Each structure stands twice: as C-alpha cells, then as structure tokens.
Amino acid sequence: MEIVPTVLSVLLALAFLGAGVTKIAGPKAAEQRADIARLGLPPSATPMIGLIEIVAAGLLIAAVISDEPDFARVGATMLVLTMLGAVAAHLRVRDSLAHTAPAAVLGVLAVVTLVVAG
User: Fold this and answer.
1) Tens of pLDDT along 88-103?
2) How many domains does the chain have?
C-alpha cells in the first residue's frame, strides 16, 4: 500500500479498535449502551456495533501488513456503512453537532480511505 492509504488505514483502525472495544467491554460499556438506546436502537445492538468496528479495524490492519488493498476496501466499506447509520441515527433524534460530528468525520475519513485504497 502507498503512504496515504496506509496512514489513513492505521488511523481509522486505531480509532475504531478503541471505539469497538469500549462498546463490548470495560467501564464505558454501560455508557455506550445508554447512548445507543438514546439514539433509538436497542442496547443489545451495542456489542454488535462494537464487533463490526473491531472487525473493520482488523481488516484495515491486515491490509497494511499484507499489502492487500482488498482488505482495506472491505474494512473501509464496513466503516462507511456503520458511520452512515450513526449519522442517520444522530440526525433522527436531532442530536447536536458535537454529538454528530465525530461519526461524520470518521465516515468521511472512511470514504477517503476507500477511494485511495481503490
């Protein structure tokens, strides 16, 4: 992989690995479930979302290690779709920009990663 897709893949992987782990385990898991419920999703969806984020992060890291752009494309696509859902959920409940922006920014970075990995 070239330098830009590699850097983007690593940054996204780190962000989503952290986000995914906090949705599944640790002291912030309950807080994450409450936030997901506030967005109108069942709290039981929280670990599934976390698992999707962790798998996508793993694919991005696998792309960097193996120099296989298909892994990056699949991982970035998973994150684009996940962030589209997150932004839609935030907009549906009329969340503030402060709550919506992180998902939007990470979604845009995932789109850019998808494009440059292509």
Assistant:
1) 999 999 999 999 999 9
2) 1
User: What is the length of the chain?
Assistant: 118
First to last CA, the chain: 10
The string of pLDDT tens digits covering residues 47-83 is: 999 999 999 999 999 999 999 999 999 999 999 999 9
Domain carrying residue 17: 3-117
- All residues at 6 or more sequence positions from 27 whose CB lies less than 8 Å from its CB, including other chains: none
pTM, two decimals, is: 0.93
Instruction: Spell out a b/e string for 54-81, using b for 16 or more CB atoms within 10 Å of the CB, else e.
Output: bebbbbbbbbbeeeebebbbbbbbbbbe
